[in-house]
Amino acid sequence: MTTTIADPAIRITGLTKSYKKLSVLKGVDLAVERGTIFALLGSNGAGKTTIVNILATLVKADGGSAIVDGHDVAIDPADVRESISLTGQFAAVDERLSGRENLLLIARLRHQADAARIADDLLERFSLTEAGGRKVATYSGGMRRRLDIAMSLIGNPSVIFLDEPTTGLDPQARLEVWATVKELAGRGTTVLLTTQYLEEAEHLADRIAILHEGRIIVSGTLAELKKLLPAATVEYVEKQPTLEEVFFAITGGTSPEPQEQ
């Protein structure tokens, strides 16, 4: 299959999947443009992880087609795996090793020529250089997730799947991961992000799709989705600080920039 830069990084057409009598995906259509962050929203059990697992060649679809970086997941699974990386809901790091040792291990498993340089570059890129020699067991949740994402970038995949990357993280750690995801897209990586956190999608995504009962029920930019609802009535009230603002004021952390209304 010939791929051009104008082709979407991911294209899903009529995707279906059932587990015994449970129909999980009922004809999903989706396109993700290159170098963008695409958020797939849905409640638990909506089928988000099933879509990611099909795209990552871990699960076979029952029907429809899925193209990733120009390769059909059913016909060319090996080529798909060369083009992607997957970060699951929990950080896949070895706590007994240091951060640098984790990176070295993955670089050598992927037959990279200069594993030491790659490890050091990624530690610097993800602000982990000072912690690189420490065992991962001593890392915070945000540091572990950043290391996990760094490991997934070894080999320079063009597409990365982040399956609910901030599950279980505290507010400060979530901000660290958000910054990392934005940096990925800024370098041209295509990011498919699954999440059940609406604020996360609003803060990060170029485009958003909502998966409900096995189907994409709406897809578009944040501005386009907001137009689906009638304009709000403007009322002037005294603004009270949000819990998030209180949290960061007390802890001295940095809250995300407020969204335009």
How does this structure look, described?
The chain is of the alpha/beta class and 261 residues long. It has a single domain, classed as 3-Layer(aba) Sandwich (Rossmann fold). 33% of the residues lie in helices and 23% in strands. It is built from nine helices and ten strands. The strands form two sheets. It has a six-stranded mixed beta sheet, with helices on both faces. A four-stranded antiparallel beta sheet has the order 2-1-4-5, with helices on one face. Strand 4 and strand 5 form a beta hairpin. The longest helix is centred in the last third of the chain and has 16 residues. The chain starts with 9 loop residues before the first strand and ends in a 10-residue tail after the last helix. The model has no long low-confidence stretch (mean pLDDT 87).
Low-confidence stretches: none
Total domain modules: 1
What is the top-level CATH class? Alpha Beta
How many helices does DSSP assign? 9
Q: So, the CATH homologous superfamily?
A: P-loop containing nucleotide triphosphate hydrolases
Shape: globular
| CATH architectural group | 3-Layer(aba) Sandwich
Largest sheet: 6 strands, mixed
- Output the helix-strand order: EEEHEEHEHHHEHEHEEHH
CATH fold annotation: Rossmann fold
Alpha carbon gap, first and last residue: 44 Å
Care to give the gist of this entry?
This protein is an alpha/beta fold and 261 residues long. The protein is built from nine helices and ten strands.
SSE topology:
Blueprint: E1 10-19, E2 22-32, E3 37-41, H1 48-55, E4 63-68, E5 71-72, H2 77-83, E6 84-87, H3 99-109, H4 115-125, H5 141-152, E7 159-163, H6 171-186, E8 190-195, H7 198-204, E9 207-212, E10 215-220, H8 222-226, H9 243-251
Parallel strand pairs: 3-8, 3-9, 6-7, 7-8
Antiparallel strand pairs: 1-2, 1-4, 4-5, 9-10
Helix pairs in contact: 3-4, 5-6
